[in-house]
Design brief:
Blueprint: H1 5-21, H2 25-42, H3 45-52, H4 55-63, H5 68-76, E1 83-92, E2 95-104, E3 107-119, E4 122-130
């Protein structure tokens, strides 16, 4: 069975960024964002909460009265064929920001800033902001 268009697009966008970034922190950030896109595509809320989102972001979700997985399910339930194209990554010590174009079959594309922080040695997403 062929891979869905959105998975191929996410992998190609991540590969383009990886080749442009080279090694190091930028590559690690790109890897995290690629895993994020794949988890959203698969609706793998457990992986998002356990592996990709920061504890601060998860705590903020709890403060509004929903466990992480339920909040993400509510937010991503209608998202179909999501894609992410990473435009640029900026590293500042243990924090990073990435500007990305996101799209889905049933939504308008947007340019987003995704902020990440090192947490237990891994890059974790702590903020997603539409421009």
């Amino acid at each position: 069975m062929p891979a869905p268009r959105s998975v191929i697009a996410a992998v190609l966008a991540a590969a383009a960024l990886l080749s442009a970034c080279g090694r190091g922190a930028e590559r690690e950030v790109a890897d995290t964002l690629e895993r994020y896109a794949e988890a959203v595509e698969k609706k793998d809320y457990q992986a998002l909460c356990d592996d990709l989102l920061s504890q601060d972001l998860i705590e903020n979700l709890r403060r509004v009265g929903k466990p992480c997985e339920i909040a993400l399910q509510d937010g991503f339930e209608d998202v179909q064929e999501p894609t992410i194209e990473i435009k640029r990554v900026k590293i500042d010590g243990d924090t990073a920001s990435a500007v990305a174009r996101t799209d889905a079959a049933n939504q308008e594309p947007s340019e987003d800033t995704i902020r990440l922080a090192k947490e237990d040695g891994d890059w974790k997403i702590f903020d997603l902001t539409s421009a």
